[in-house]
Amino acid sequence: MNKSRKTEVGSWEITELRSKKIKNMIKRIFENLSRQGKGLVVLAITFFTLYALAGTAVMLLTLDMLRKIVESEPIMLINYWIALGVLVVFKGICNMVADMAKHFAGFDIEERIRKNILLGLKKFSLGFFTKERLGEISTIIHKDVANMEGVVAHMWSRMISDFIVALILGIGLFIVDWRAGLAMVSFLPVAIWVLISGIKSGKALQKRSQDDLSDMVSLFVEYVKGIPLLKAFSESSKFQNKVNASAEKFGESSKQSAKNIAAYLGRYSFFLELCFAVLATAGALLVFQNSLSIYSYLMFVIISREFYKPFVGMEGHWMNYLKVTDSYRRLQTVLDAPVIESPALPKKPESYSITFEDVCFSYEKDEFAMKNVSCYLKQGSLTALVGPSGSGKTTITNLLLRFWEPQQGCIKIGTKDIRSIDYDELLSNVSIVMQNVILFADTIFNNIKIGDKKATKEQVIAAAKKAMIHDFIMGLPSGYETEVGENGVGLSGGQRQRISIARAFLKNAPVVILDEMTSNVDPVNEAKIQQAISNLAENRTVLVIAHHLRTIRSADNILVFNDGVINQAGNHDSLIEQKGLYHSLWTAQEKAREWQVGA
């Protein structure tokens, strides 16, 4: 096969692949519409078509009325006026119905995609959130989903109806006179070829521009979130310069993309205008030769503008298409992200012991790896995970919560593999109290009620009392109805921790995961938190990530991690006697504590 033939085949394959991608995109967007939304799209297309045809009928009726007046034919003007009035009212009704239907269809897909994303976020693996930046996810949920509303509400309904009208009018005009019809479409194939060629050449530039936009938004979100920190350091100008450079890069790529689009759209418009010029010239020649009546000629000149309308509108349709395809590409990263699959026949644990059997896991190749971890956490016991930073303590809890999936081995609650338990069921059996507490911009009452949305006020208060936070809340001006800022602005670290513990009490789950919370709180809060945790741990299977070894001396079992493996296991006294890693960590912390007390 010669080189030109290979190039031809390669080009055909690329075109075929793009065609499949477009069909798949249209299919998936349509599938995301509800049944009612699909009906609204059809309704909008139908009434926009009727609206345009009614407008054409008004022009033809007016033209016929003028013809009869000029040729002195008998005419009942009142009949024409009534017909024109009816058509104008009909046009208005069609436009109103079509406009409402298209927007309702657009809102339908916007609501459904956002709902699917929000429902899916909880089921994505933790890996998704570490790879996707907050700014990019924010852009997807807001800007890209809104673009899907645009394709349904504006692109589909208008474009399809315009082409239906063009087909009907084109057939009608060819019936009137095929020669004028050919003149009308003379340079149309050339114009379409120019448009398609320009589209192909501009795809890479448009993609780069949109990627630069995502980078700029992500950096800007980071910049805004980090303003308090940046203000405190003299080097903050470096990050600001980085944001400025990102904005300049986006500006430059946008200019290049816009320049490319303007060039081929200009040529496309020129050939469309040339079509009309050929029609006007050829039609006038046919009239001069008495081969075409002046009435038919005027019909072509006037109605051809409606025929050209969808082709003239291709510029807007193409711009919408660019936004949609790029937005769809980013939406796919969210909609098609791997989720935690629910088992076909979900099982429920009969007890709440926890077992790790030969679990192996690594985040990325050639990075941290957990190797053949096996351990048993008896129901109702307190097990502490200790070890140097990066040794695998947090990974254990992430695997138990299925934020990540082990590459080998299994994890069981009772005798049931957690993968055989429905994910919502699994999470409902676990309460989590982490060091970094997340509170929402809402009342204290609603922040606690997250533990159980069906809880009564009395149950919320009882949970707060067990968490040793009730007295503090009652001392606030509005009590439980006191509004707190995002992430608990206005509350101390210890107060936020106790609100989090109150959530766990309200949830009343049989398994509790604790990331030791007392490392950065004052002594008063520390004592209250320790008491609240003691209350919470009663009759529950508790897993503690321990940083301060003094707080877990009474643990039933202590697992000492080092470099992804369990280095030691036992209670405090037995581990001290072994003179291993635990003994070294304990000795180091005790010396540091003595030094602090002495200082």
Task: Write a structural description.
- The protein is α/β, with parallel strands linked by helices and 599 residues long.
- It folds into 3 domains: 9-335, ABC transporter type 1, transmembrane domain (ABC transporter transmembrane region fold); 343-424 and 512-517 and 542-599, 3-Layer(aba) Sandwich (Rossmann fold), CATH 3.40.50; 430-508, Rossmann fold (3-Layer(aba) Sandwich).
- Helix content is 66%, strand content 10%.
- The chain has helices spanning 3-32, 35-70, 77-121, 126-131, 134-176, 178-184, 188-225, 227-231, 236-288, 294-312, 314-335, 393-400, 423-428, 444-449, 457-466, 470-474, 493-507, 523-537, 572-578, 581-598; strands at 354-362, 369-377, 382-386, 408-413, 416-417, 430-433, 511-515, 541-545, 557-562, 565-570.
- A 6-stranded mixed sheet has the order 6-7-8-3-9-10, with helices on both faces. Strands 2-1-4-5 form a 4-stranded antiparallel sheet, with helices on one face.
- The longest helix has 53 residues, at 236-288.
- It is elongated.
Q: Helices, strands, pairings?
A:
Layout: H1 3-32, H2 35-70, H3 77-121, H4 126-131, H5 134-176, H6 178-184, H7 188-225, H8 227-231, H9 236-288, H10 294-312, H11 314-335, E1 354-362, E2 369-377, E3 382-386, H12 393-400, E4 408-413, E5 416-417, H13 423-428, E6 430-433, H14 444-449, H15 457-466, H16 470-474, H17 493-507, E7 511-515, H18 523-537, E8 541-545, E9 557-562, E10 565-570, H19 572-578, H20 581-598
Parallel strand pairs: 3-8, 3-9, 6-7, 7-8
Antiparallel strand pairs: 1-2, 1-4, 4-5, 9-10
